[in-house]
Design brief:
Number of domains: 1
CATH architecture: Orthogonal Bundle
Order of helices and strands: EHEHHHHEHHHHHHHEEEEHHEEEE
Strand order of the largest sheet: 1-7-4-2
Helix content: 40-55%
Strand content: 5-15%
Radius of gyration: 21 Å
Distance between the termini: 53 Å
Shape: globular
Number of helices: 14
CATH class: Mainly Alpha
Number of strands: 11
Largest sheet: 4 strands, mixed
CATH superfamily: Cytochrome P450
Structural class: alpha+beta
Length: 396
């Protein structure tokens, strides 16, 4: 397609080889890096080799478990503010609500700002997602073509990059002892020490703003979609939240919310927000007996692997208990956050956020689905609902 040879890799053993066992033989690929070069070309998501390894090492402390625990109060407060706006009997568009919630969490925890005060973050995110919406033909057109989508993308991206530069400049002006230890402060410190360039700081900030909120919002949306269709599951989770949390979920509570974690796992299996990964073979390789020439684009589809009956009994059904214990399936029959050295650095952050938000919502409300139980889905940059997913709220 468009001059690129591609091969779909849908066996867990082959997925494991590409992402983990022989990962050095596979790169991000020219298709991905070319499209995202303007927005985040010097950031973790797109960079490779020594540049990626250096950045990953430096950014990792912001995502250590101990550091992540300090973010939970802000996650809980943001979710509580969402709940305060709800009323018994209201009908809520879940994806819109969860998108606003996760954007707010990201701004508060990683960057120390209230993104609600500046619409450029959400506007730029929307422009980037529209520009790379693979369900639309324009996502395959060069950036230099002056289409309306490209012009809006370029305009909003310029404003977002200026916003990020301003944030970094303000942080540099603060006393290092009073900056805090969020991601922005860490990156500013690395720039001052000469370990990161200004471009690398900017592109990593854009990377986390862009990639860090929509995927988590979609994970929350699809978990609520599943729970809203299963009142018995909701009741089980509410009982768990009542037993574990003392009116307000804390970081210490999260490991004990095991059934809630299984429900999230199952929703991510059925509706993986990132529904396929791309890699490119750097050299000739053989996978499952098939010869793959160098330069071939490899497509690793979570959607197909997560619903393959070879690995999953009754794969179309929401059954969280399938994650309770070792089911004997291959490890890479499930990979919503990727795998290997380049697995999503924000995986723990996203999981903690989803558990914190859902526990806060379940503590106050029950949900009933009032929209289509089998919603249309759009294979865009992420797996997005094609229309509103609406739930009716029932105060507990």
């Amino acid at each position: 397609m468009f001059g690129t040879d591609a091969c779909m890799i849908a066996h867990p053993d082959a997925v494991q080889r590409v992402l983990l066992d022989d990962h050095e033989a596979f790169g991000k690929g020219e298709v991905l890096t070319r499209n995202l070069a303007d927005a985040m070309g010097e950031g973790l998501f797109v960079s490779g080799g020594d540049q990626w390894e250096n950045q990953r090492t430096q950014v990792q402390p912001a995502f250590y478990r101990k550091q992540l625990h300090t973010y939970v109060p802000e996650m809980q407060s943001t979710a509580a503010e969402t709940v305060e706006q709800w009323r018994d009997g209201m009908v809520v568009d879940v994806n819109d609500t969860m998108t606003a919630t996760t954007m707010d969490v990201l701004g508060r925890t990683l960057f120390g700002v209230d993104v609600r005060e500046n619409p450029i973050v959400s506007e730029a995110s929307d422009a980037i997602l529209t520009r790379f919406d693979t369900s639309r033909f324009w996502s395959f057109l060069p950036d230099r073509l002056p289409t309306p989508t490209n012009r809006r993308y370029r305009r909003k991206l310029d404003k977002l990059q200026q916003f990020v530069d301003d944030l970094a400049r303000q942080r540099r002006q603060q006393d290092p002892e009073n900056r805090g230890d969020d991601l922005l402060s860490l990156l500013v410190g690395f720039v001052e020490a000469g370990d990161l360039t200004v471009d690398e700081l900017r592109d990593n900030m854009v990377t986390f703003l862009f990639a860090g909120h929509e995927t988590t919002a979609l994970g929350l949306t699809y978990t609520l979609l599943c729970l809203a269709q299963h009142p018995d599951r909701q009741a089980d989770l509410q009982a768990e939240v009542d037993a574990v949390c003392d009116g307000r979920v804390t970081a210490g509570d999260l490991p004990e919310l095991e059934r809630l974690e299984h429900a999230i796992d199952e929703a991510l299996r059925l509706y993986p927000p990132v529904y396929m990964f791309f890699r490119e073979a750097k050299r000739d390789v053989t996978l499952q007996g098939y010869d793959i020439p160098a330069g071939t684009t490899l497509v690793l589809p979570q959607w197909a692997v997560h619903r393959d009956p070879a690995w999953w009994d009754d794969p179309e059904t929401f059954r969280p208990e399938r994650f309770d214990g070792d089911a004997g399936r291959p490890e890479y029959a499930y990979f919503p956050f990727g795998g290997g050295p380049r697995h999503c650095i924000g995986m723990r952050f996203a999981r903690m956020e989803m558990k914190t938000v859902l526990a806060t919502l379940l503590d106050e409300y029950s949900f009933e689905l009032v929209s289509d139980p089998d919603p249309d889905l759009i294979a865009s940059t992420n797996l997005k609902p094609g229309g509103p997913i609406e739930i009716a709220l029932d105060v507990r």
